[in-house]
Amino acid sequence: MVKNPEIAIIDSNTLSGMGLQTLLEEIIPMATIRVFHSFGELVDDTPDMYAHYFVSAQIYFEHTSFFRERHPRAIVLASGENLPQLAGVPTLNINEDEQALAKSILLMHERGHRKGGKHPHPSPMEHDLSAREIEVLVLITKGFINKEIAEKLNISLTTVISHRKNITEKLGIKSVPGLTIYAVMNGYVEADSI
């Protein structure tokens, strides 16, 4: 049995930490995510138990040696102005919109697990989506709105809304980025096609 990944978020900005935690919970629902408001809080915990460290640029720069030892598991939460200083370091541009952030996290996740071996994904049938629900899910991930989905699949708008409701209830995922991550992780769409 594979242990669920444990992820640390180290950021003194409470709002940033909570937002990233919410996004990661949607993308990687099986993960245990801990938020630390300072480097000291992380060190007081068990600092080497985490599969990934999402760390603010300020804390990264203050404790570079600690995080360099954990490369590439340490991902720096950087704004556009920090990116040139972080060449060669995995970074997440915090100024991106939710969809772009989710895609960046997914691509990091895919690259990391390609190098490190296979990562267990739930099988596509685990949540028992119908063929039509999968079609609707794929179109949602490609950015189509309900009306466009109805036209493409030649079904009513009410039926599309019903399928979307069923999908979110079965998966427990409400946001489009979360649904996109689920679709990619289960092979319904390729990450590069979104």
Word description of this protein:
- By secondary structure, the chain is an alpha/beta fold.
- It folds into two domains: 6-115, Response regulator (Rossmann fold); 124-193, Winged helix-like DNA-binding domain superfamily/Winged helix DNA-binding domain (Arc Repressor Mutant, subunit A), CATH 1.10.10.
- Helices cover 48% and strands 12% of the residues.
- The protein has a five-stranded parallel beta sheet with strand order 2-1-3-4-5.
- Helix 5 (98-115) packs parallel to helix 9 (176-185), helix 6 (131-141) crosses helix 8 (157-171) and helix 7 crosses helix 8.
- The radius of gyration is 18 Å and the shape is elongated.
- The model is unreliable at 113-126 (pLDDT under 50).
CATH homologous superfamily heading of the largest domain: Response regulator
Shape: elongated
Write down the oligomeric state.
single chain
Radius of gyration: 18 Å
SSE pattern, N- to C-terminal: EHEHEHHEEHHHHH
Biggest sheet record: 5 strands, parallel
Number of helices: 9
Number of domains: 2
Identify low-pLDDT runs: 113-126
For this entry, give a set of tags.
Arc Repressor Mutant, subunit A, Rossmann fold, 9 helices, alpha/beta, 2 domains, 194 residues, single chain
What's the topology here?
Blueprint: E1 6-10, H1 14-27, E2 32-36, H2 39-44, E3 52-56, H3 57-62, H4 64-68, E4 74-78, E5 91-93, H5 98-115, H6 131-141, H7 146-153, H8 157-171, H9 176-185
Parallel strand pairs: 1-2, 1-3, 3-4, 4-5
Please sum up the structure shown.
With 194 residues, the chain is α/β, with parallel strands linked by helices.
